[in-house]
Amino acid sequence: MNDEQPPEPRWLTTEEQRTWRAYLHATTLLEDHLDRQLQRDAGMPHIYYGLLVQLSQAPRRTLRMTQLAKDAKITRSRLSHAIARLEKNGWVRREDCPSDKRGQNAVLTDEGYGVLERTAPGHVAAVRQAIFDRLSAEQVAQLGEIMKVMAEGLQPTDVNADLPWLR
Amino acid sequence: MNDEQPPEPRWLTTEEQRTWRAYLHATTLLEDHLDRQLQRDAGMPHIYYGLLVQLSQAPRRTLRMTQLAKDAKITRSRLSHAIARLEKNGWVRREDCPSDKRGQNAVLTDEGYGVLERTAPGHVAAVRQAIFDRLSAEQVAQLGEIMKVMAEGLQPTDVNADLPWLR
DNA sequence: CTTGCTTACTTGAACTCTCAAGCTTATGCC
DNA sequence: GGCATAAGCTTGAGAGTTCAAGTAAGCAAG
């Protein structure tokens, strides 16, 4: 027989709950806000905009699909669908990768770059208004550090990459 | 003629960019992580789980649709679809509101409560592992304050509610 | 050189979200 | 009462996301 009881879970303290709720509210409100802002002004959701930004900063405005997916923290499947849509808009072009016949490069077109040029100011203004105009310099630094720590803990590092005993 | 130039937008400083990127990475990674965790263990996305939690804490486990939508920071349309799905699962029931024939109440069923009981420990553990186990008490307090400020700035207060000259 | 495993990417179906439109009931005003 | 407007909620269609499955090309071992 198994007499073990599941251990009483460590619930959140009142203070932690307050923080967690505030986190959920702020992040969902902001994401909705930016999604609407960009959908209205740039004709695409926030995540798609982020893809164009990544491409615009890459050498030759070109990135391998897998790399872009990693940078943007999304699955390759999602990226495939997204690039298909952006390609239909004429903002991104696909190219075969010369060195690896399995590979695809996503390339930001001039049109895509133009969209970015036209809409970036409005987007930055929205971000600024939501965050940086409301926080002290100290808080911005704190936020940066906190988010860095959180992101590190969530990085989907290759499973087993840190498990030498499985190699 | 119009000689006005659009003012050069105030771009983000390097420090602000770093913080903004960290924010985007951490929030998308966490949301994906929790969505998968709950989809796997509770059979619903994070936001749906949040709806059940709200209901579980309301008197008589009942809430008007509009109120629930406000609490969860989602549109009424989205809520309608969500409740329809949860109703199909038998976790929520709709009731006509006695005092207002337009109104609908969402009620958490016993089954719904059961799902919550069974899955809450795992969910809390995931949240704890992603945030509270990795941050100092001080950082938790900072995060709470920062998120509170951000949420306040994004609150979709009724348009015009703060514009007395339009009344 | 071929067998088997891995990597890169795509696809389709099921599900969710958004947006605009629609229905019903409440409320204020004459 | 009768009318206009607002509030509460739903619906359907189009767009986006997820998950599992599929194709094709690299790679390593024998």
Task: State Rg of chain A.
Answer: 21 Å
CATH class of chain A: Mainly Alpha
- Mind telling me the CATH superfamily name of chain A? Winged helix-like DNA-binding domain superfamily/Winged helix DNA-binding domain
H-E string of chain A? HHEHHEEHH
- CATH names the topology of chain A as Arc Repressor Mutant, subunit A
Helix fraction of chain A, binned, reads: 55-70%
Give the number of domains of chain A: 1
Distance separating the two termini of chain A? 35 Å
Low-confidence stretches of chain A: 158-167
Overall shape of chain A? globular
Provide the residue-averaged pLDDT of chain A: 92
Greatest chain-chain interface?
A: A-B, 54 and 54 residues
| Oligomer category | homodimer
Q: So how many helices of chain A?
A: 6
Tell me the fraction of residues in β-strands of chain A, as a range.
Answer: 5-15%
Assign the CATH architecture of chain A.
Orthogonal Bundle
Structural class given helices, strands, pairing of chain A? mainly alpha
Largest sheet of chain A: 3 strands, antiparallel
How is this structure best described in words?
The structure is a homodimer of 167-residue chains. In chain A, strand 2 (92-96) and strand 3 form a beta hairpin. Chain A is mainly alpha-helical. The radius of gyration of chain A is 21 Å and the shape is globular. Chain A has a single domain (21-151), classed as Arc Repressor Mutant, subunit A (Orthogonal Bundle), CATH 1.10.10. Chain A is built from six helices and three strands; from the N terminus they run ααβααββαα. The interface between A and B is large, with 54 and 54 residues. The structure holds a DNA duplex (30 and 30 nucleotides).
